[in-house]
Amino acid sequence: MSTTTPRSANHEPANHQDRALARHRVTSSLSMTAKIIVLLIALFLTLGPVVWTLVTALTPTDAAGHRTLSLAAFRDVFSKVDVIRLFWNSTLVTGLCAIGQMLTAALAGYAFARLRFRGANLLFGIILATMMIPMQVTIVPVFMLIRGMHLADTLLALILPAIPTAFGTFLMRQYFMGIPDTLAEAAEVDGASPWTIFRSIYLPLATPGMAIVGILAFNSIWNDFFRPLIMTISEENFTLPLGLVSLQGQLGTGSMSTILAGVVLSMIPALIVFIIGQRPLREGLTAGAVK
Known about the structure:
By secondary structure, the chain is mainly alpha-helical. The chain is built from 14 helices and no strands. Helices cover about 70% and strands about 0% of the residues.
């Protein structure tokens, strides 16, 4: 006579929990693998061109057609173009434009955020609408205006039109709106004027937002090629991106290593500015996320 051992009541739930835990581990492992693959692809797409540029610039082709590690391409850049003048022009134009955008964006952003005047919303909407207009559409009237002011083929032709910034105004307006009203109210009780409130209270608190405007302006204007191409004719007024074009040679016969060596030199200032401004940039981007 056979006997049947009764199944434990906790046996099936335990097996079910084990299978669920195993499936969770497999899913988590697949998810982590997918994330790693995506990050590796993003890393390759981001750093791949930079690494290729550095390797090509540091390994120029010699007379025998072999690539050797040397700085000959960088010496070739200094011998073919006036790098010092190009760097000075780009630094002057970019620095003044960045400072101008920071100041004008702070003033306009404060006015739209804290001052009450008729037509403020309409004017702010018009300013935002200008962000939808490409530069290529407005370059002709801007050039005619600059020529009428007798500033054509000068560095001022690159500086003055680039100082107003619609995006910077929008960014600073939103930043000022995130600052508590009680600060201004307390200053008004003490008899402070709107200018004093802006200069002594709001402007110091808006330093991270201004840093964002300045860094974005520097990156955009330093790499700008289109406006210097239209506004300047003399080589003494060329900026770095425009001057490096001459490294291509006649009909594009220039050395690829020399061209990329010039590109590497042009990346150094932008990299230095990003490293210096990384902390205020991070603080400005995360401002308001935690109350």
